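Minimal example, chain plus 2'-deoxyinosine 5'-triphosphate.
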Amino acid sequence: MRVLVATHKEPKLAKLRELLAPLGWQLEPIGNYAGLLPNPDAPGEDLTERVPVVATHLAKLSGLPTLLDESCFEYTRAGQRVFFSLQFGPGDSEEERRAKLLQKLRGLPPQERMTRFMTVLTLAYPQGKTETYVGETQGVLLHKPKGEGGVGYDTLFFVLEAGKTLAEMSPAERERFSPWERAVRRLLGHHIIDHLHPTVELPPQGSSATLELAPGAARPSSRPSPMRLLVATNNPGKYRELREGLAPLGWELASLLDYTFKMPPEEGATFEDNAMLKAAFACRQTGLLTLADDSGLEVDALEGEPGVYSARFGGRKSDLERNIYLLERLKGVPADKRTARFVAVLAVAHPQGFMQLFRGVTEGLILEAPRGENGFGYDPLFFVPEAGKTFAEMSMEEKARHSHRGKALAELIEAYKDGFRIPEASSSE
Ligand SMILES: O=c1nc[nH]c2c1ncn2[C@H]1C[C@H](O)[C@@H](COP(=O)(O)OP(=O)(O)OP(=O)(O)O)O1
Ligand SMILES: [Mg+2]
């Protein structure tokens, strides 16, 4: 597909071509489009309304799908939300705009310089259809520029989480924190993963397998992977274990804390379903290679409960309450009938439109009282006979050797250790 890009900045076009390469689109610059705009100074502070309108205008004029992005800072001044658009009006150089922004910020206390740096990216089609993607990053606007790299306002935007301005970051870091890149990755994720359905046939249980999810989708490109993986879990205990387990790969990890979107409800009937649902969703949101973990405890005396409902067992809200509830449910059940297993399914969603699954299982017993301080969740109640301890009595390394998650991770590492290769999508023809 030929796509016009509404920019006259060569570096931006080059970066866009690089990021969107897997789509195989032919991206062409529109050149200086300022004269084509209906009203370049149109107020429309809400970029999510304004950008689609302008992009549609350009698409209709050119007869081609057209990409347009605009960014703004949103901050609070005297209790009011203020938007500072970064669209260059005619005659405004980057320098002049930066000066205007500094002017506006003069005398603002730090809490009022907290800001949301937002990019709105629209792909508009000549027929009038539009798709809009938003990327955002929280930070603080500085009084004085800091750093040398980046473009535009990067010298003024301090990312708290990173402890530096976008201009002080390496290109790889900037990629991670820039709202523009986030918006572009969302577009990529959307287009490439469109055919990804978590309802496809599952691989045989108990094995890892490669699913080909998108027979008609773009073929996986062999371009070197960014080696960046989003670990899509909101559970800090899991995140720690996954981070440790993935360390041998040396990949750069992103977490959900880097993003503002909410994960969807986990409505699947199996761990596989839920893991794929979570991975596919977060992958689509971010365009990143994404790992999700769905796990839980199956207790034989409870006919497999809590299973996929482990995180909301008995409607209990905390790990402690769920552990108490589990003990209540097992009251009077003798030791030899307290068998249980932990299951973990890891799903890796590739922005190229397919998914891999890894599964690990650990057999054990539910004790009558908690033992140990480590770990999280049901760890203090889960006794592993082969180790003679509960998960909560093990160090992280020890738990990794015995645990369901550790086993699934070992399979994952085995699959990716010789460098990251995207499996060939086996075509049905
Ligand atoms: O090694 C473990 N040791 C103890 N407990 C564990 C373990 N692995 C899973 N569990 C428990 C935690 C949670 O109650 C449920 C998983 O639910 P699950 O939906 O997969 O995770 P979650 O909601 O905590 O985080 P998220 O979905 O964001 O990844 O099983
Ligand atoms: Mg969950």
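Residues 233-235, 238, 266, 293-296, 310-311, 342, 375-379, 391, 403, 405 surround 2'-deoxyinosine 5'-triphosphate (ligand 1) (CB under 6 Å). Residues 47-62 form the longest helix (16 residues).
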